[in-house]
Amino acid sequence: MGRLGLVERTASADLARLGWDNEDHIELLWSLSRAADADAALRAMVRLADALESSWGELSAALIKDKALRGRLFGVLGASLALGDHLVANPQSWRLLEGALTLPPVDELKAAFSQVVTENPGATAVPALRVFYRDRLLVLAALDLAPTVENEPVLAFTTVGAHLSDLADAALAASLQYAVGTVCREGIEPPTLAVIAMGKCGARELNYVSDVDVIFVGAKADSTETRVAGEMMRMASETFFEVDAALRPEGKRGQLVRTLDSHIAYYQRWAKTWEFQALLKARPAAGDAELGRQYVEALMPMVWTASEREDFVVDVQAMRRRVEELVPADVRGRELKLGTGGLRDVEFAVQLLQLVHGRNDEALHVASTVDALAALGTAGYIGRDDAANMTASYEFLRLLEHRLQLQRLKRTHMLPPPDDDEALRWLARAAHIRPDGQHDALGVLREELKRQSVRVSRLHAKLFYQPLLESTGVSVDIGDGMSAAAAERQLAALGYQSPGSALTHLAALANSNTRRGRVQSVLLPTLLDWLSDTPDPDAGLLQYRRLSEALAEQRWYLGTLRDESAVAKRLMHVLGTSAYVPDLLMRAPEVIQAYADGPTGPKLLDVDPDGVARALVAAAGRQSDPVKAIASARTLRRRELARIASADLLGMLEVRDVCHALTSVWVAVLQAALDAVIRANTPKGGAAPASIAVIGMGRLGGGELGYGSDADVMFVCDPVSGVEEAKAVKWAMLVAEQVRALLGTPSADPPLEVDANLRPEGRNGPLVRTLASYEAYYRQWAQPWEIQALLRAHRVAGDLELGHRFLLMVDETRYPPGGVSAEAVQEIRRVKARVDAERLPRGADPNTHTKLGRGGLADVEWTVQLLQLRFAHKIPALHNTSTLESLDVIGAAELIAESDVELLREAWLTATRARNALVLVRGKPTDQLPGPGRLLNAVAVAAGWPEDDGGAFLDNYLRVTRRAKAVVRKVFGG
C-alpha cells in the first residue's frame, strides 16, 4: 500500500469494498496513487460508491476504461475535500467529467444560470443554483487538477481565472434576475441597473474562492433599485460567494446605488488615488449592458490622469505602508497575498506603472495583471525578461493560492507552517510539482518558494527602476526602452520632485563600463526603491552620488553595499532624511561599515561614548602642535558625530543617550584643546603658572547637549604657589582665548562654538577669573539670573580638583542654607515674563519654536530651575544640573503633581527630539519647526515619529507642549 501512496490502515479494506483489490485494477490504483492525497481520494471514493449504490459499477467500469475521467476524478478527490463532499451529496455529477470537456463561454453560462432561476421559482432557486454553481466549479477544477494524476493538458492560469470570472458574471446575472423577480411584484417597474465588476473579477483573474467586488449604477438610484441591489447581494452571498460593494463612492457609508451622473461628480471632486487605482479593473458584468458601458467610458479618462494629482505620490506611499502593516510579522513569510514578495507586491507595482504611463500609452489600458505585465514589457517600461519572470512568479503564487482554496473551498492565502511536512507535501503534489532528481516534491516546493519570494522582491524594485537606468543609456537589451519623458513621469510618481536631475544622477552613477558602473547598475534598482520611501529621495540620490564619487577608490564601499543589504538600506534612509550626516560620512566613511549588524546587535551601538572621549583626548595629546592636536580631535569628533547621528536617525538611540554621547564628545574636545594649548604655552621642563578649570554651563553643564548646541563655559584659574596673581591670570587668559580661537576656526565639520557669555558681567567681564574673584563677585553682586544660571554649573575639563572647589564655592550662592530670597524668586518670575514677551525671534511662531516657544525647552527648564531655587535648600537631591534628573526628584518629593511632572518631562523630550531632528534634517542649528510639507515630514522621521506624517507629528507636538505650558503657568503663577 505504501508504494501506492496509501498509508492509512483502512486502505486495504476500502479497496476491497470498492472491488479494486485484484490485478484487473492495478492501472487504476497507480492513477489513484498519483493524486495529491491518495488516502483522501480513496475515502471519498468509498463514500461516493455508497451514495451511488446500485450504479456504482457503472462508474467503476468507466474509470477502468476512461483514462481522462480517472485523472479528473482522482485529481479532484485528492485535492479538494469540499468538492468531494459535493460529489457525495450529488453523486450523479461524476458524469459531468466524462468525455471531451470544454469550458463554455460566458453567454452560454449566463443562459444556463438563467434557466435554473426560471425553472426553480422563488426560494427553490437558491439550492438549485448552489448545486449548479458547484457543478461548474467541479468541471473547471477537474480539468485544472487532472495533470496531477494523468498526463492531461495543463490549464493556463489565465484560462482558469477567466472562466472563474465568467462563472461569477453568470452567477451575478442570475442573482439580479432573482432579485428583480422578488422585489418587482405587480405594479413595480423593473429597474435599469448595471453591475460593475471590480478587483480580480473585473480583471477576469478571479480565484476559486474570493469576494466579488461590485459597484452598482442605476438609472434613477431610487428605493426600488437600491432594494434590488441589496437583495441581489444577499442572494449571491448566500448561494455563490461573498459580494462586496465597499469599493463604491464613500465606501460602506455611501449610497449602495448611484446614478451615472452622481458617480461622475464624485470621482471628479472627491475620489482618492486608491479609488482610481481600483477603477483600473472596472468592467460591466451583469445588468444593463449599455449603462455599464457608459459608466466605464465616462470614468476611464479620469483613471489615466490620476498620476497628475497633487497628492498622488503621498497616497501611493500611504497605500504601500497600509498593505505592509496589514500582515502580522510572525506570518509574513507564509502570506501569499500580502507578505513580502507576495501577490500584492506584483499587483501594486503593475498598477502603479499603468497609472504613470497609461495616459500616454493606450496599450496599457488593460485590466489583468498578466496582460498588463506583457504590455509594459512590450512598450519598454519594464524589461522583457523581467516581465516574463514576474509573470511566471505571479502565476506560480496564484497556482498555490488556488490549490489552498480548493482544499476546503475557503478563502485563504496562507501557506502551511514551514514545519508541517505533510501539508506542504500535499500542496506540492496538488500544484503539479514533481521531484527533480535532487529533491522530492516537498523539497522542490520549499526551494521554489524561497526562490520566488526573493525573485518577486528583487523584481519589484527592478520593475520601477531598471528601465529608468536603461533610459539614461545603460546598455541592456530591452528593445526600444523607456523614453526620457516616460522615465521622468515614473520618477515623479515615485516621489522625486526633480526627476530630470534624478536621471542625471543615475546616468552619472551607472552609465560606465567600469566595474563601479556595473556594480552600481545592479545596486541602484534596490537602492532607489529604498530611497523612494524616505522623506526626500531627491536629496538622498544627490547625496548618494556625492558619496559614491568621494569613495570611488574605496573598493570596500560598493562591495559592502552589495553584500550587506542592512548597510545599504540604512544608508539610504540616512541619506534621504538628513543633510547633517552625509557631509560627515564623506570625511568619516568608515562609519558606513558600522551600519552592519554585529554578533550582539548593530555595530553603531558597539561603542562606549566615554571610551571614545578618552581616546580622543589621548590622540590629541600625542601632537605637540595645538593646531594638529585640534585636527586630530576633530577627526575623532567627526567620526563620533557621524556614529551618533546615524544611530539616532535609524531609531537605535533614545534621546537621553544622544544627549549624553554629544556631551561626552564635546567635553573631550574641550579637554583636548585645553591640554594642547597649555602644553604650547608652558616652557619646556617648566611648570604652568596656574591651574585652569572649565566649568560647563547650560546644557553642557546639564549633560544634555543637542546637535546644534554651543558649549556654554566659564574659565576659572588658580595661581600656583609663588606666582603672582596678575601673571597667572594673564597666562590663563591667553590659554582661554587660544582655546576659543582654535575651536572656533572655520571648518567643514559642525562648528565648535565656545560661549563664555554667562560669566560674571557677561561680555564686559574678564574671560578668566580666579576662584577668589568669582567668590567675591557672587557674594556681593550676583543677580538673580546669574544665580539661576549657576544651577547648571558643572566641572567638565581642566583641573578637576579646582573645578570641584569652584562648585563647592558656588553652592553657597545657588543653594544657600535658608534658600534664595523671595525677592530673587519674584525677579526670576518677572524675567521669565519678559523673556516670553521679548526674546522670541522676529517672525517665529510661538507655538512651534522648540526652544523659546510655548511649552518648549526654555519653559520646562525655567520651571525646573524655579523649583530648585525654592526648594533645593531643603532637598539635597535637587542639587542636580540635569533637567530630566531634577524632574525625577521633583516628582518623588511631590513638589508638584506627578502628572504635571510627566507632562513637563514629555514636553522636554519631545522638544529635544524635534530640535535635534531639525539639525539632522537641515544640516544647521535651528529652533523653528517648519510648516506642513516635505521638510516637516523629514523632521518627523528624524525625530522617530512612526510615520512620515508631518501633520500628525506636529499635532502631537502642539498637544504635548500646550499641556506643559499649563503646568508652567501654574508653577510661575503661584
UniProtKB/TrEMBL annotation:
Cofactor(s) named in the record: Mg(2+)
Region Adenylyl removase, annotated ranges: 1-468
Matching Pfam families: GlnD_UR_UTase (PF08335), GlnE (PF03710)
UniProt-listed InterPro entries: GlnE, GlnE_rpt_dom, NT_sf, PII_UdlTrfase/GS_AdlTrfase
EC number: 2.7.7.89, 2.7.7.42
UniProt-listed SUPFAM superfamilies: Nucleotidyltransferase, Nucleotidyltransferase substrate binding subunit/domain
Highest taxon listed in the record's lineage: Bacteria
Residues in PII-uridylyltransferase/Glutamine-synthetase adenylyltransferase domain copies: 318-464, 837-972
GO cellular component: cytosol
Reaction catalysis annotation: [glutamine synthetase]-L-tyrosine + ATP = [glutamine synthetase]-O(4)-(5'-adenylyl)-L-tyrosine + diphosphate; [glutamine synthetase]-O(4)-(5'-adenylyl)-L-tyrosine + phosphate = [glutamine synthetase]-L-tyrosine + ADP
Any GO MF annotation of the entry: [glutamine synthetase]-adenylyl-L-tyrosine phosphorylase activity
Gene Ontology terms describing biological process: regulation of glutamine family amino acid metabolic process
CDD domains to which the protein is assigned, alphabetical: NT_GlnE_GlnD_like
Annotated Glutamate-ammonia ligase adenylyltransferase repeated domain residues: 72-294, 569-807
Adenylyl transferase: region residues: 479-974
Keyword terms of this UniProt record: ATP-binding, Ligase, Magnesium, Multifunctional enzyme, Nucleotide-binding, Nucleotidyltransferase, Transferase
Function per UniProt: Involved in the regulation of glutamine synthetase GlnA, a key enzyme in the process to assimilate ammonia. When cellular nitrogen levels are high, the C-terminal adenylyl transferase (AT) inactivates GlnA by covalent transfer of an adenylyl group from ATP to specific tyrosine residue of GlnA, thus reducing its activity. Conversely, when nitrogen levels are low, the N-terminal adenylyl removase (AR) activates GlnA by removing the adenylyl group by phosphorolysis, increasing its activity.
Cross-referenced PANTHER family: BIFUNCTIONAL GLUTAMINE SYNTHETASE ADENYLYLTRANSFERASE_ADENYLYL-REMOVING ENZYME, GLUTAMINE SYNTHETASE ADENYLYLTRANSFERASE
Family classification: Belongs to the GlnE family.
Stated name of the protein: Bifunctional glutamine synthetase adenylyltransferase/adenylyl-removing enzyme
Source lineage: Bacteria, Bacillati, Actinomycetota, Actinomycetes, Mycobacteriales
